[in-house]
Design brief:
Length: about 180
């Protein structure tokens, strides 16, 4: 019995070390592994492309109270971005010249309602969520980033616009297995 437990412990440790090494190798080669429900789960590769509507991007959140709350509640991971935040992957839905409206009903871009964009008032634990409001035309350095696949994603409906200098890369899915 003890031998079986020892084998199990060694196997779990070996698997953990292998996944850690694989994730480091993937990051060095410009591959992100998305395991969150905000985007399809899978592998995303850094590409040298402009940020256009519909593009997936990796960004460091700005250091502020909303992202501090998100980190403390584990909506976002801890990581190497300023404030100890983890890099986030989202999709761009609006950029310079686009008219954006954010309220509890959802997000509108140029008058068109985006699917899965209605704000929730509380998270799964019953904790209140920020109720962000906005009505503006985006300037050259502003982007609207969110998930169109997860109505519970922590995204622009709660934190608003993201500045261009926060966006690190454009990424493209290379292998995904869920929508």
């Amino acid at each position: 019995m003890k031998k079986n437990i020892k084998i199990l412990v060694v196997s779990v440790l070996a698997l953990s070390v292998s996944l850690f090494v694989l994730s480091i190798g993937a990051r060095i080669s410009g591959i992100y592994i998305n395991t969150t429900p905000s985007l399809p789960v899978g592998f995303y590769k850094v590409v040298d492309e402009p940020i256009v509507n519909g593009a997936y991007v990796a960004f460091c959140p700005p250091q502020n109270a909303v992202f501090d709350m998100a980190k403390n509640r584990s909506y976002i991971n801890r990581g190497d971005c300023p404030g100890g935040y983890g890099l986030l992957l989202k999709r761009a839905f609006a950029q310079s010249g686009d008219t954006v409206s954010i309220d509890q009903v959802g997000i509108y871009v140029n008058g068109e309602h985006l699917p899965n964009s209605a704000q929730l008032t509380a998270d799964a634990e019953g904790q209140p969520l920020p109720q962000y409001r906005l009505q503006t035309v985006l300037n050259d350095s502003e982007y609207l980033l969110l998930s169109d696949v997860n109505p519970q994603s922590f995204d622009a409906r709660y934190f608003g616009l993201i500045a261009r200098d926060q966006i690190q890369q454009v990424v493209r899915p290379i292998f995904i297995w869920s929508h």
